[in-house]
Amino acid sequence: MVIILCISFFIAASIVSESVGVLARAIGSLAGQPTVGYSTHVRIATLGRFFTLLAARTLGYIVDQGGSAKDIALTGSIAFFIIAIMLYISIKKGFSFVKKIFELLNRRKIEIEGKYIDNDISLSNLCFSTPKLTVIVFISYSITAIGVILVNYIASLHPEIRATIVQTTAIITSLGTLLHIFIIDSVLSNAADNDPEKLHSLVYSYLSIRFIASLFLSFLFFILYLR
Q: What confidence score (pLDDT) does residue 125 get?
Protein backbone atom coordinates (compact mmCIF):
# COMPACT_ATOMS: atom_id res chain seq x y z
CA MET A 1 0.00 0.00 0.00
CA VAL A 2 2.92 2.35 0.71
CA ILE A 3 4.26 1.83 -2.80
CA ILE A 4 0.82 2.49 -4.28
CA LEU A 5 0.55 5.76 -2.35
CA CYS A 6 4.04 6.80 -3.44
CA ILE A 7 3.28 6.14 -7.11
CA SER A 8 -0.02 7.99 -6.78
CA PHE A 9 1.85 10.97 -5.37
CA PHE A 10 4.45 10.86 -8.18
CA ILE A 11 1.74 10.83 -10.86
CA ALA A 12 -0.21 13.59 -9.12
CA ALA A 13 2.88 15.77 -8.69
CA SER A 14 3.71 15.50 -12.39
CA ILE A 15 0.23 16.25 -13.70
CA VAL A 16 -0.50 19.03 -11.20
CA SER A 17 2.80 20.76 -12.01
CA GLU A 18 2.08 20.68 -15.73
CA SER A 19 -1.52 21.81 -15.18
CA VAL A 20 -1.00 24.58 -12.65
CA GLY A 21 2.02 25.83 -14.56
CA VAL A 22 -0.39 27.23 -17.15
CA LEU A 23 -1.15 30.01 -14.66
CA ALA A 24 2.37 31.29 -15.36
CA ARG A 25 1.28 32.01 -18.92
CA ALA A 26 -1.56 34.18 -17.67
CA ILE A 27 0.75 35.92 -15.21
CA GLY A 28 3.34 36.61 -17.90
CA SER A 29 0.75 37.92 -20.32
CA LEU A 30 -0.89 40.19 -17.73
CA ALA A 31 2.57 41.54 -16.86
CA GLY A 32 3.33 42.23 -20.52
CA GLN A 33 5.78 39.31 -20.73
CA PRO A 34 3.94 36.53 -22.62
CA THR A 35 7.11 34.82 -23.84
CA VAL A 36 8.56 34.68 -20.34
CA GLY A 37 5.22 33.35 -19.12
CA TYR A 38 5.32 30.53 -21.66
CA SER A 39 8.92 29.73 -20.78
CA THR A 40 8.03 29.61 -17.08
CA HIS A 41 5.16 27.20 -17.77
CA VAL A 42 7.54 24.93 -19.70
CA ARG A 43 10.07 24.96 -16.86
CA ILE A 44 7.48 24.14 -14.22
CA ALA A 45 6.05 21.32 -16.36
CA THR A 46 9.52 19.93 -17.07
CA LEU A 47 10.32 19.78 -13.37
CA GLY A 48 7.07 17.88 -12.88
CA ARG A 49 8.02 15.28 -15.49
CA PHE A 50 10.76 14.06 -13.18
CA PHE A 51 7.97 12.53 -11.11
CA THR A 52 6.58 10.81 -14.22
CA LEU A 53 9.90 9.00 -14.60
CA LEU A 54 9.70 7.84 -11.00
CA ALA A 55 6.10 6.71 -11.38
CA ALA A 56 6.66 4.81 -14.65
CA ARG A 57 9.58 2.83 -13.31
CA THR A 58 7.90 2.00 -10.03
CA LEU A 59 4.72 0.91 -11.80
CA GLY A 60 6.84 -1.30 -14.05
CA TYR A 61 8.45 -2.83 -10.98
CA ILE A 62 5.03 -3.69 -9.54
CA VAL A 63 4.02 -5.42 -12.78
CA ASP A 64 7.34 -7.30 -12.98
CA GLN A 65 6.83 -8.54 -9.43
CA GLY A 66 3.41 -9.94 -10.31
CA GLY A 67 1.30 -7.04 -9.08
CA SER A 68 -2.37 -7.30 -9.89
CA ALA A 69 -4.46 -5.13 -12.18
CA LYS A 70 -6.38 -4.09 -9.06
CA ASP A 71 -3.20 -2.55 -7.64
CA ILE A 72 -2.69 -0.48 -10.79
CA ALA A 73 -6.34 0.58 -10.89
CA LEU A 74 -6.24 1.63 -7.24
CA THR A 75 -3.11 3.65 -7.94
CA GLY A 76 -4.89 5.47 -10.75
CA SER A 77 -7.97 6.16 -8.64
CA ILE A 78 -5.96 7.61 -5.75
CA ALA A 79 -3.69 9.62 -8.07
CA PHE A 80 -6.53 11.33 -9.90
CA PHE A 81 -8.40 12.01 -6.68
CA ILE A 82 -5.31 13.79 -5.35
CA ILE A 83 -5.01 15.67 -8.65
CA ALA A 84 -8.64 16.80 -8.47
CA ILE A 85 -8.13 18.14 -4.94
CA MET A 86 -4.96 20.01 -5.90
CA LEU A 87 -6.55 21.48 -9.03
CA TYR A 88 -9.53 22.68 -7.01
CA ILE A 89 -7.17 24.41 -4.57
CA SER A 90 -5.23 25.88 -7.48
CA ILE A 91 -8.38 27.29 -9.05
CA LYS A 92 -9.32 28.92 -5.77
CA LYS A 93 -5.95 30.09 -4.47
CA GLY A 94 -3.20 29.17 -6.94
CA PHE A 95 -2.61 32.46 -8.76
CA SER A 96 -0.56 34.21 -6.07
CA PHE A 97 1.43 31.02 -5.37
CA VAL A 98 2.41 30.57 -9.01
CA LYS A 99 3.19 34.29 -9.19
CA LYS A 100 5.79 33.78 -6.45
CA ILE A 101 7.29 30.85 -8.36
CA PHE A 102 7.29 33.00 -11.51
CA GLU A 103 9.26 35.71 -9.71
CA LEU A 104 11.65 33.18 -8.18
CA LEU A 105 12.43 31.40 -11.46
CA ASN A 106 12.85 34.65 -13.39
CA ARG A 107 14.49 36.65 -10.60
CA ARG A 108 12.24 39.65 -11.07
CA LYS A 109 9.30 41.25 -9.32
CA ILE A 110 6.17 41.82 -11.34
CA GLU A 111 3.10 43.92 -10.69
CA ILE A 112 -0.39 42.66 -11.56
CA GLU A 113 -3.74 44.18 -10.67
CA GLY A 114 -5.16 42.80 -7.44
CA LYS A 115 -8.40 41.69 -9.11
CA TYR A 116 -6.51 38.84 -10.78
CA ILE A 117 -5.01 37.44 -7.58
CA ASP A 118 -6.70 34.71 -5.52
CA ASN A 119 -10.00 34.91 -7.32
CA ASP A 120 -12.96 33.43 -5.48
CA ILE A 121 -14.10 31.59 -8.59
CA SER A 122 -17.09 29.28 -8.66
CA LEU A 123 -16.45 26.12 -10.63
CA SER A 124 -20.02 26.24 -11.90
CA ASN A 125 -19.13 29.40 -13.85
CA LEU A 126 -16.03 27.93 -15.43
CA CYS A 127 -16.41 26.65 -18.96
CA PHE A 128 -15.17 27.49 -22.42
CA SER A 129 -17.51 29.56 -24.54
CA THR A 130 -16.90 27.00 -27.29
CA PRO A 131 -18.22 23.52 -26.37
CA LYS A 132 -15.86 22.02 -28.96
CA LEU A 133 -12.83 23.35 -27.10
CA THR A 134 -14.18 22.02 -23.81
CA VAL A 135 -14.49 18.54 -25.30
CA ILE A 136 -11.02 18.70 -26.84
CA VAL A 137 -9.42 19.73 -23.52
CA PHE A 138 -11.25 16.90 -21.73
CA ILE A 139 -10.20 14.30 -24.30
CA SER A 140 -6.62 15.55 -24.69
CA TYR A 141 -6.04 15.62 -20.93
CA SER A 142 -7.65 12.23 -20.34
CA ILE A 143 -5.60 10.50 -23.05
CA THR A 144 -2.32 12.06 -21.93
CA ALA A 145 -2.90 11.61 -18.20
CA ILE A 146 -3.85 7.92 -18.19
CA GLY A 147 -1.12 6.73 -20.58
CA VAL A 148 1.39 5.31 -18.11
CA ILE A 149 -1.32 3.88 -15.83
CA LEU A 150 -3.38 2.32 -18.59
CA VAL A 151 -0.52 0.46 -20.27
CA ASN A 152 0.67 -0.96 -16.97
CA TYR A 153 -2.90 -1.97 -16.10
CA ILE A 154 -3.13 -3.88 -19.38
CA ALA A 155 0.41 -5.26 -18.92
CA SER A 156 -0.55 -6.68 -15.53
CA LEU A 157 -3.34 -8.61 -17.28
CA HIS A 158 -0.97 -9.87 -19.97
CA PRO A 159 2.51 -10.04 -18.35
CA GLU A 160 3.83 -12.37 -21.07
CA ILE A 161 3.88 -9.45 -23.54
CA ARG A 162 4.48 -6.69 -21.01
CA ALA A 163 7.37 -5.07 -22.93
CA THR A 164 5.31 -4.76 -26.09
CA ILE A 165 2.36 -3.25 -24.24
CA VAL A 166 4.46 -0.74 -22.29
CA GLN A 167 6.00 0.53 -25.53
CA THR A 168 2.55 1.78 -26.54
CA THR A 169 2.70 4.45 -23.82
CA ALA A 170 4.29 6.94 -26.22
CA ILE A 171 1.61 6.27 -28.84
CA ILE A 172 -1.23 6.88 -26.38
CA THR A 173 0.21 10.02 -24.83
CA SER A 174 1.30 11.45 -28.18
CA LEU A 175 -2.31 11.52 -29.40
CA GLY A 176 -3.32 13.72 -26.48
CA THR A 177 -0.18 15.82 -26.88
CA LEU A 178 -0.91 16.48 -30.56
CA LEU A 179 -4.45 17.65 -29.72
CA HIS A 180 -3.03 19.95 -27.07
CA ILE A 181 -0.24 21.44 -29.18
CA PHE A 182 -2.18 22.03 -32.40
CA ILE A 183 -5.50 23.15 -30.95
CA ILE A 184 -5.45 24.08 -27.26
CA ASP A 185 -1.99 25.62 -27.10
CA SER A 186 -2.60 27.75 -30.16
CA VAL A 187 -5.73 29.22 -28.54
CA LEU A 188 -3.84 29.99 -25.32
CA SER A 189 -0.86 31.46 -27.18
CA ASN A 190 -3.02 33.70 -29.35
CA ALA A 191 -4.80 35.05 -26.26
CA ALA A 192 -1.45 35.55 -24.49
CA ASP A 193 -0.23 37.78 -27.32
CA ASN A 194 -3.44 39.69 -27.99
CA ASP A 195 -5.82 39.57 -25.01
CA PRO A 196 -4.34 38.92 -21.53
CA GLU A 197 -7.73 39.18 -19.82
CA LYS A 198 -9.17 36.55 -22.16
CA LEU A 199 -6.17 34.32 -21.45
CA HIS A 200 -6.81 34.68 -17.72
CA SER A 201 -10.35 33.42 -18.26
CA LEU A 202 -9.22 30.63 -20.61
CA VAL A 203 -6.64 29.38 -18.13
CA TYR A 204 -9.22 28.97 -15.38
CA SER A 205 -11.59 27.24 -17.80
CA TYR A 206 -8.71 24.96 -18.79
CA LEU A 207 -8.00 24.07 -15.15
CA SER A 208 -11.68 23.52 -14.37
CA ILE A 209 -12.06 21.00 -17.22
CA ARG A 210 -8.98 19.16 -15.99
CA PHE A 211 -10.49 19.14 -12.48
CA ILE A 212 -13.72 17.59 -13.77
CA ALA A 213 -11.81 15.09 -15.93
CA SER A 214 -9.68 14.08 -12.93
CA LEU A 215 -12.77 13.28 -10.87
CA PHE A 216 -14.12 11.24 -13.77
CA LEU A 217 -10.85 9.31 -14.18
CA SER A 218 -10.61 8.67 -10.44
CA PHE A 219 -14.11 7.19 -10.50
CA LEU A 220 -13.31 5.17 -13.64
CA PHE A 221 -10.22 3.58 -12.13
CA PHE A 222 -12.10 2.90 -8.91
CA ILE A 223 -14.69 0.96 -10.90
CA LEU A 224 -11.86 -1.06 -12.49
CA TYR A 225 -10.49 -1.70 -8.99
CA LEU A 226 -13.83 -3.08 -7.83
CA ARG A 227 -14.15 -5.47 -10.77
A: 55
